[in-house]
Design a protein that fits this description.
Layout: H1 2-14, H2 23-40, H3 43-49, E1 50-57, E2 63-65, H4 66-72, E3 84-94, E4 97-107, E5 113-125, E6 128-139
Parallel strand pairs: 1-6
Antiparallel strand pairs: 1-2, 3-4, 4-5, 5-6
Helix pairs in contact: 2-3
Length: about 140
């Protein structure tokens, strides 16, 4: 009897949607693709990631249009990027709008690290997520105790 119960649970579980297919997973993938494209100065990947009306607020408060962002990451403008890591990632989906918040930490050559809090806003159209906005807010260094 127990083996029938286990077999039944296994069959029922086979039809369940995996967690990786949750809407939030698509948003996380979008943000990873965006950050990878920026690091590699890959304009083709950026074009596939950014909505036509994309707008970005830089860490210094500049408002950059999609065209300006694409120009900044043109292959001929490529320069070495310090190692960066994303943590504290939280993703929410509300219908066709998705919001991702993350902490991006940059490891500088002198051994220090600086972090920015990033808010990404995405829109889903025709089954595809595209970024419509990103805002980078610098975080002050941790105070010594």
């Amino acid at each position: 009897m127990m083996s029938l119960l286990i077999a039944g649970l296994a069959i029922a579980g086979a039809g369940m949607t995996p967690m990786a297919e949750a809407p939030e997973a698509g948003l996380r993938t979008l943000v990873e693709r965006f950050e990878t494209a920026r690091t590699r100065f890959d304009p083709a990947a950026l074009e596939r990631t950014l909505a036509p009306d994309y707008e970005e607020i830089s860490p210094v408060g500049d408002v950059d249009t999609r065209d300006k962002v694409l120009g900044y990451y043109a292959p001929e403008a490529k320069r070495p990027a310090p190692p960066m890591a994303s943590t504290d990632i939280v993703a929410h989906v509300q219908g066709p709008i998705g919001i991702v918040t993350a902490r991006r930490t940059i490891s500088l050559p002198n051994g220090t690290a600086r972090s920015v809090r990033v808010r990404y806003v995405a829109r889903k159209a025709q089954g595809d997520w595209r970024l419509v906005s990103a805002q980078y807010t610098p975080m002050p260094p941790a105070k010594a105790q």
